[in-house]
């Protein structure tokens, strides 16, 4: 399935600062939260569609099965995202833990657009924990 992934939108990182007065001058310092608290805790994967939208229907079925009330699993298995350098070696890996699938984008079907062309669809996820693993040092 990874061959059909078009792009991944990695969570944004913005940190709040603390400002205090020191001898009547404002001083800014980093906040006191853990690193993970600054992350958006959601990510989006954009897939390139295949013939017959097979990968769309696989993801649709996965979401349907995941959200089924008879499914007692709270989370999906951990998801790993690896970043490769120009030579193909992984230098950073991101491990998303306690992942929840939150959405699959719409599928526009009409006769006029039934031509052989690639289209994209997105799948949205949220996670509770993240591990960043530096593999090349």
Give the topology, please.
Blueprint: E1 5-9, E2 17-22, E3 25-30, E4 42-48, H1 54-67, E5 79-84, E6 90-97, E7 100-104, E8 120-126, E9 129-134
Antiparallel strand pairs: 1-4, 2-3, 4-8, 5-6, 6-9, 7-8
Task: Explain the overall architecture.
The protein is mainly beta. The protein has a domain at 2-71 and 101-125. 10% of the residues lie in helices and 41% in strands. The protein contains one helix and nine strands; from the N terminus they run ββββαβββββ. The protein has one helix at 54-67, and strands spanning 5-9, 17-22, 25-30, 42-48, 79-84, 90-97, 100-104, 120-126, 129-134. The strands form three sheets. It has a four-stranded antiparallel beta sheet with strand order 1-4-8-7, covered by helices on one side. A three-stranded antiparallel beta sheet has the order 5-6-9, with no helix packed on it. A two-stranded antiparallel ribbon has the order 2-3. β5 and β6 form a beta hairpin. The protein is elongated, with a radius of gyration of 20 Å.
Percent of residues in helices:
10-25%
Low-confidence segments, given as residue ranges, are none
* Net shape: elongated
| Measured distance between first and last alpha carbons | 30 Å
Report the radius of gyration as a whole number of Å: 20 Å
> Mind summarizing the main beta sheet?
4 strands, antiparallel
The pLDDT mean sits at 83
Order of helices and strands: EEEEHEEEEE
Structural class: mainly beta
